[in-house]
Amino acid sequence: MVGKTARVVIACAAAAMVTAGGGAPVASAAPAFGEYVALGDSWSADASLSQATGEFVPLACAQSQGSYPKQVAAALAVPVFRDATCGGATSVHMTGPHSVPFGVNPPQFDRLTASTDLVTLGIGGNDAGLAATVQQCVTGDAALSPCLDTLVDGDVDQMSLNIAAAEQKVTATIDGIRQRSPRARILLLDYFEGVTTGPGCFPTVPISDADADWLGRKLIELNAMLARVARATGVELVDTYSTSSGHDACQPPGVRWAEGLVPWSSNPPGLAVPFHPNQLGADHQARRVLAALGR
To answer: Could you confirm whether the keyword Hydrolase appears in this record (predicted)?
Structure first.
């Protein structure tokens, strides 16, 4: 997921991006899969500014050299690997082109073939609008709750409605993968705990306690929707959330797996995309995917 502020940071910093190593797990001796395709939004691209790469997608997709798909591909030693993940992607960008600053990411499904036998998918957060909403919650006054004030009216929670509406889109995405790659083992990832329920940490992350708690609950709703889709479609859900408690953006460097509003990461040191995984978060996702694959 990438919101408006993050896209502006990406566009301004694209020319200054540098590459760095990703700390991938050790490759296994015999490949279990022949063709691996990674699909998804910025939480699958593990959006980065300090170690972004244009190897597979336009540079402004902010795809990290140390992203979990690249770690998984290295650990599995897959002969063919294509990474279509891109910051800001929605389900629309599975079948349609995605315009980003200075380039276009082709439809992500274009990377799928009849011989693809492994697919990881991380999608839904942008379809529900949760990424943009996180940035709407930012405030300079801890007494204000801009998200609750604008998105909740009595018993009507607009974000809950958005999440429910995204369910059909994620389902259709999985159906589209199966049509193009009927042999593929499909792993659907949820979103780990970048924000948590309960009080926030204003002003370190400038979101009021009420809005922080609401965001944490909306993330749980989003992940519950993804779990329903996985059950209904028969794909495997990779649960990255339940094993990520205590590593949200409010935690100190070296402990947090996602950054806050300040676009700087200590893991690795350098420019970061606000409210997105750092390298520790990407490493966690890779471990969970490999565990699901029995590695």
So the answer is: yes
